[in-house]
Amino acid sequence: MDCIFCKIINKEIPSNILYEDEDFLAFLDLNQTCLGHTLIIPKKHLEDYTKLEKEELKKMFEIAHILSSKIMNKLDSNGISLNFNYGSLQEIKHVHLHICPEKENKEKKNVTEIYNTLKDDN
């Protein structure tokens, strides 16, 4: 399969992983459209988020809840946006939930600096 997210899941491509279990992976988007932009993806390849089972969807949002709190606290954000892109809006054809923190002060950091702030040993 030539899916970049599947390659990240299989550790063929390095990523800044913030969460992983047997079913899901969450990592920082390399294209940080907002400081702390994180993606949550199922480990099984699905293009259509409507094909997620209800329990899978519930678990994705539970992970988003945990990570959103951590991101807001550690990056001093004052808001969070969660969204799925689908169909023609979906750049990578693998289900992914975006966590986009908002911050009044639009400081710039690279993904490594953000990861070092968010990783668990901080």
Q: What's this entry about, in short?
A:
By secondary structure, the protein is α+β, with helices and mostly antiparallel strands.
Number of domains: 1
Rounded radius of gyration (Å): 14 Å
Strand order of the largest sheet: 1-2-3-5-4
Q: Let me know the largest β-sheet.
A: 5 strands, antiparallel
The CATH architecture comes to 2-Layer Sandwich
CATH secondary-structure class: Alpha Beta
Write the CATH fold name: HIT family, subunit A
Order of helices and strands: HEEEHEEH
Distance between the termini: 36 Å
Query: What is the number of E strands?
Result: 5
Strand percentage: 15-25%
- Structural class by helix and strand composition: alpha+beta
What's the helix count?
Answer: 3
| Percentage of residues assigned to helices | 25-40%
Shape: globular
The averaged pLDDT comes out at: 89
- Find the CATH superfamily: HIT-like
